[in-house]
Design brief:
- By secondary structure, the chain is an alpha/beta fold.
- It folds into two domains: 276 residues, Aldehyde Dehydrogenase, Chain A, domain 1, CATH 3.40.605.10; 192 residues, Aldehyde Dehydrogenase, Chain A, domain 2.
- 39% of the residues lie in helices and 22% in strands.
- It comes from Streptomyces endophyticus.
Length: 486
């Protein structure tokens, strides 16, 4: 896995214009491979290749697009073991996560959108009866609403899941007849090139899929501002999303943004605490807290607060931190040394703000790897930065409240973010009532699970637009109206 990777542009594997850089295993601090550093011109060339390929690809039969996506899924599954090994080496994910939540989900998304390519794109409208007037004679006007592909889509993906996240963009975009320029996260891009190779072998025409990578800001900028790009689909931080939005606004490029999160988990006085603790505790396990949907703000009623903190502390104590390849490991490393320092700085900030570090707070005594101990900050208030800002690590802040559900809702909604929130209550009707009041794109009621056909996206600074299921097909399409006299 230490070979030098080339870019994929216009159906060709191209040497990068700015050399290569090392991709580092965050668990062992060893070099996984050498990723290509694209030049700005090569990114523009990739966008142009996607533009040239768009017209013929958008006119292919849905059955042909579906067959290619299905074959690509078959090939990814064929190489499953090697793909999972690479994903683990790049991202530091545990073996179960790399296999089950990264590669397996990536494969399943290609299969889902192979079927999605066959979904109807026409919607008949009710005929309209028009009286005679300045626009002409009286008559009946028929209409048809048709979903058309947007065009060339830039897909900029996050580092926390180098298979599921790119697949969730590339597959529905291709299913709808778009062509793509993919710019993976610089920390773990090699898996995305594996995905491109599978698509090439599956028979995707030249230029339909293009992949460029790099550590320089200029690479991402070019992928956004390229004149041939019609839409940008981005997963990442709110700050970067805001900058992308500014660039897109100047040329009216379409946007799909899945940005930061600071999920509130409301634990009401009648909640099943074991269920709440198990749900909230998994935020530590998935990608070592590097997941925007994690419930990292626990808003807990005072009557059950002490018991909740004690149970969550005990839960954390059973979580083994270490080499993600070792059986029994629950928490692997964070993505880099720089990110580890960022997470640790937030824990120290929490201490200074007056939070009580109940669990964690110290760097694990491991000889290599970028590890952070799962950390529980208790006695927090909503004005603390550790409560308000996305840490993106295995850190949960617990905020007590004394009043009724109105106070809990107010605390949960007092945030710049609104991706996914959670409610735990023994009264399901009560939980649903609270859920409807939360300003978040999704709400889990007594669960952290998701329905993978339900729309996914955020309120406020957590994003723009929705994807997943058929909603992803809608996100990568434009409505066109066709009208005729009856």
């Amino acid at each position: 896995m230490t070979e030098s990777q080339r870019l994929f542009i216009g159906g060709e594997w191209v040497e990068p214009g700015a050399g290569h850089y090392d991709v580092v295993d965050p668990a062992r601090e060893t070099v996984v491979g050498h990723a290509p550093e694209a030049s700005r011109q090569q990114v523009y060339d990739a966008a142009r290749a996607a533009r040239d390929a768009f017209e013929p690809w958008s006119r292919t039969k849905p059955e042909e697009r579906a067959a290619i996506l299905d074959r690509a899924a078959d090939l990814m599954q064929r190489d499953f073991a090697g793909n999972a090994e690479l994903a683990q080496a790049e991202s530091g994910a545990t073996t179960g996560t790399a296999r089950g939540m990264q590669v397996a989900v990536g494969v399943s998304r290609f299969r889902r959108y192979a079927k999605g390519a066959l979904e109807p794109v026409e919607e008949a409208m009710t005929p309209q009866i028009n009286e005679a007037g300045p626009m002409g004679k009286a008559g009946v006007t028929g209409a048809l609403a048709v979903r058309q592909p947007v065009g060339v889509v830039t897909c900029i993906t996050s580092y926390n899941n180098p298979w599921a996240n790119p697949a969730g963009k590339i597959a529905p975009a291709l299913a709808m007849g778009n062509t793509v320029l993919v710019k993976p996260a610089p920390q773990d891009p090699l898996s995305v090139f594996r995905m491109a190779a599978a698509l090439e072998e599956a028979g995707v025409p030249a230029g339909v899929v293009n992949v460029v990578s790099g550590t320089e800001v200029a690479v991402g900028e070019a992928a956004v501002d390229a004149p041939d790009v019609d839409m940008v689909s981005f997963t990442g931080s709110t700050a970067v999303g805001q900058r992308i939005g500014e660039v897109c606004g100047r040329s009216m490029k379409r946007q799909l943004m899945e940005l930061g999160g600071k999920g509130a988990a409301i634990v009401l006085d009648d909640a099943d605490l074991d269920s709440a603790v198990a749900g909230i505790g998994t935020t530590y396990a998935f990608y070592s807290g590097q997941i925007c949907t994690a419930p990292t703000r626990a808003i807990v009623h005072r009557s059950v607060y002490d018991e909740f903190v004690a149970k969550l502390t005990a839960y954390i104590g059973y979580m083994k931190v270490g080499d993600p390849r070792t059986k029994g490991t629950v928490l692997g490393p964070v993505i880099s040394a720089a990110h580890r320092e960022r997470v640790e700085s937030y824990v120290e900030l929490g201490r200074k703000e007056g939070a009580t570090v109940v669990a964690g707070g110290e760097r694990p005594a491991l000889e290599e790897g970028f590890y952070v101990a799962p950390t529980l900050l208790a006695d927090c208030t909503n004005d603390m930065r550790v409560v308000r800002e996305e840490i993106f690590g295995p850190v949960v802040a617990v905020v007590p409240f004394d009043g009724d559900e109105d106070e809990a809702v107010a605390l949960a909604n007092d945030s710049d973010y609104g991706l996914i929130d959670y409610v735990w209550s023994g009264d399901v009707a009560r939980a649903f009532r609270v859920a409807r009041r939360l300003r978040a794109g999704g709400v889990g009621v007594n669960t952290i699970g998701r329905n993978m056909e339900a729309p996914f996206g955020g309120f406020k600074k957590s994003g723009v637009g929705r994807d997943v299921g058929s909603y992803a097909l809608h996100a990568y399409s434009e409505w066109q109206s066709i009208v005729w006299p009856g």
